[in-house]
Amino acid sequence: MTSAARQAETDRASVAFHVALSQIGAKTTVEALSLWNEVPAAQRAATASGWLRKAITLVMSRRRMSRDLARAYYRLARALQTGRTVADPYHPEPTHVTLGDLRREFAALAGTYSPGNDQAGGAATGESGEAPSAHDDESGPADQDAPETPKVDDGPELDDGDDDWERVLVEELDGLREEEERIEREAEEELRTVLDALGTQNLDRRLSQVDDEQAAKDADRQRAEAHRQAGAQQAAAASRVAMNGGRSTTWNHMRRDRRSLGYVRLSRTGTPCGWCAMLISRGPVYKSRESATFADGDRYHDNCHCYAMPVFSWQQYGSSELFALSRECEAQWPKVTRGLSGKAAVSAWRRFIRQKQREAHKAAAQEARRSTTTAQEA
């Protein structure tokens, strides 16, 4: 059983991961908008191909950053929840690392993360760590031919003292690198298609609707607006593809990991759109040989602030505050959609979510007005 301290640290790591992933997305948006300025409306034919090449290089580099971040997050979260971690397929490792190594690896990529207790400094990798592993009775890699819904012994409750030197068994996930490389090839092709469609083709279509017979200043204003809107759309797509590097890496680890029961979709803002709230309402999504495909784990729209968090035990899902919205939506869905199915159920759910968010905004505005009035009277 995972201790309360380890559960709390897992939650902090998850929050730090999502903040860092969102920062990568935001930075990609800013950089994509800046790069879009190299495609002036009057010279788009001459500049489009050069812009597309630079944009692909930019986004794929940010995507690699988000993949590295997600891998470090998953390795730490798994160790905190199970006492074992997974191997980095790009960097050979010994059969054991230390919990401190995993913490520092993640902290180097997610600047907002702190384990929350005093940690020993210095590297601590290797076979020579003095502190015993919580699971030294297992020394081989995990069996990948596990049942569809694995039942994994959580083991004894882990001690949370000065545990940086705790040795953590490293387990291999078969086929991980090959699958990631396939996903990256597909992502680059998707990126090329969406940037061309939402960037230059979108700009061409918008400019074709500008009336050249109107006053020059009005036509120029409309052309500038067309350029701005096309730029915003391609930048949003660029950000999504960059962030999906981290999302897909987490997903790819989860679906190959017999110690992961499944995942829960989380909202960064706490106010998801109706469609995302529907996916959140499913609660834990469990792995199966039929459903464990990347397409199912990559349902994110442009400007989406959601991500998937791995679940390693029922205890984790039931106790973590990060899953509170998921548990709430999971309980509300059957009530809101009673007697409905398909599109009708989805529509009813979206209306419910919009109404709930309007009421929350109204209540917040009223509270703000009351606070202002009280301050003025004082």
UniProtKB/TrEMBL annotation:
Q: Per the record, where are the segments of Low complexity compositional bias?
A: 120-132, 229-242
Q: Which UniProt keywords apply?
A: Coiled coil
Does the keyword Coiled coil feature in the UniProt annotation?
yes
| Coiled coil location | 166-197
List the InterPro entries hit by this protein, alphabetically: VG15
Pfam families (alphabetical): VG15
Which stretches does UniProt call biased (Basic and acidic residues)? 205-228
Region labeled Disordered — which residues? 112-164, 205-250
Residue stretches of biased makeup (Acidic residues):
155-164
Q: What is this protein called?
A: Uncharacterized protein
